[in-house]
Every structure is written in structure tokens, then in C-alpha cells.
Amino acid sequence: MEEKQMNVKKLCCVLSVLCILGIGTTAHADWTFGIGTGISGLDVQGDLGFNSRLAGGPVMVDVDLSPSDISDFVDSAFGLGGFATNGRVVFEASFSYLSLNGDSNRAFENTTLHSELTYDFTRADFTAGYNVVKNENFVLRPYVGARYNQHEMEAELVLYGVGERNRTLDNDWTDALVGIAMDVPFAGAYTWSTKFDYGFGGSEGSYFVNSGVTLNITKHWFTGIFGQYYAIEYENDHEGDLDWYLYDVEEASAGVKIGFKW
Fold this sequence. Notes:
This protein is mainly β. The chain has two helices and twelve strands; from the N terminus they run αββαββββββββββ. 12% of the residues lie in helices and 70% in strands. The chain has a ten-stranded antiparallel barrel with strand order 1-3-4-5-7-8-9-10-11-12.
């Protein structure tokens, strides 16, 4: 618990410092800020591994969740993103939270087995980039940053009349990011944007791609559609260790966003 609290404090501290730096720069240049949210569907494919006393050792699960499967198990979900730019320097940040919950009851001859699984995903990232190429037709921006992930899982098995067993896992890691972004304005109020980055450090490696079209509805309001792909391999300890955890998956999503800028 203390380690978890320290990680959260570190993340809050970093974000606070970045906000202070951003506020300080507004005195030297005209800045534009934006904030937004959206609705999306998520598809997850890959492998999940952990050590379980309930199963008597390492367990490897083949993950195959379609958007409809995930919607059946969603307990709560939330996402928020924002940016700040003076035309050359661009800061971007986002936060997302997804909680899945599922349970089942199986009847046996003289008893009933109840199982329940809760899985919480938290993700936050921050990037800073500089427009090395910027004109009315094309913008190219390399960027660096960090992405934080936290996975919390709690499993409970209750065999009525016999007893119960519980298993919890809490893993978090932070990757450094190196990426490139491209913006292509067209048809007046539209912009096609694509960004790609590679993450390393906390995980074994990750690849992230986001591409979409944004429409400026008014001076302050904007909307758009997007597609996103995130491939991540993270492993804690080794197979057979009590705290072993493997998350080797590909996450794909698509959705609609809406935001406000000033």
C-alpha cells in the first residue's frame, strides 16, 4: 500500500510541476488550451499470466475480448485529455480509467461455487513536443514524454459450506516515450492528425498509434473521430514467482471525441 501511495504521489508531483511550468510560460507568449473527452469501443487480444494459489501455480489466459464483450463487463469507465500550445511548443496529457467486473455461480451436488473477478485499468500520459515543420499545409512534431499504467486485479472464490479464497494483484509501471506527430489541415475546418511513439523502461516495450480527423465546429468547440492501437508487453518477476504478472496484449479502439479550447 505504501509503495502504491508513493507512485501516485510521484505522478501527482510530476503533473503539478508541469502545470506550474506551463502557467509560467503564458507570460511570454500567447497560448491556446484545450480539453476533451469521448466515447470509444475497445478490443483486446493477447496473453495474460499470473501466479494463483487458487489454481495451484502459474496461470496463462488467452485474452480475446471484443467491444461487445467488454461492454458486458464494464463497471465504470472514464477518459479525459488536454493540450496547451503556443504554436511551436505542444504539451499533451490524457487520463483513462476502466473497471471490469464479472461473477458467476455454479451448482454442484451439495454446494455452490461463486466466483468474482474485478479488474481495474488506469493509464495517464504526458508528452512535450516541438513543431520542427509548421506551415498551412503540414505540421511535423517530434515529442518525448511518459506513460503510466496501473493494473489492479482481485479474484474471489467461495465454495459454500467449504470456505473461500482470495487473490489480489497490483502492478504499475512507467514508460519513457519517444514519438513523432503529424497534422495535415484540409478543407478549411478539418485536420487529419497521426501520432506514433515507442515506450520503454518500465515495460519490455510498447508501440502506440493514434490517427483521426478533427472538425473545428466553432472557434472554441471541436469534434472528431479517431482510431487507436496500443501494443504492450509487461512482465513482473518470473513465471512461478508469487508476484509474477504478464500482460502481453494488443489494444485497439475507435471512437468519437468532443472538446473545448480557449
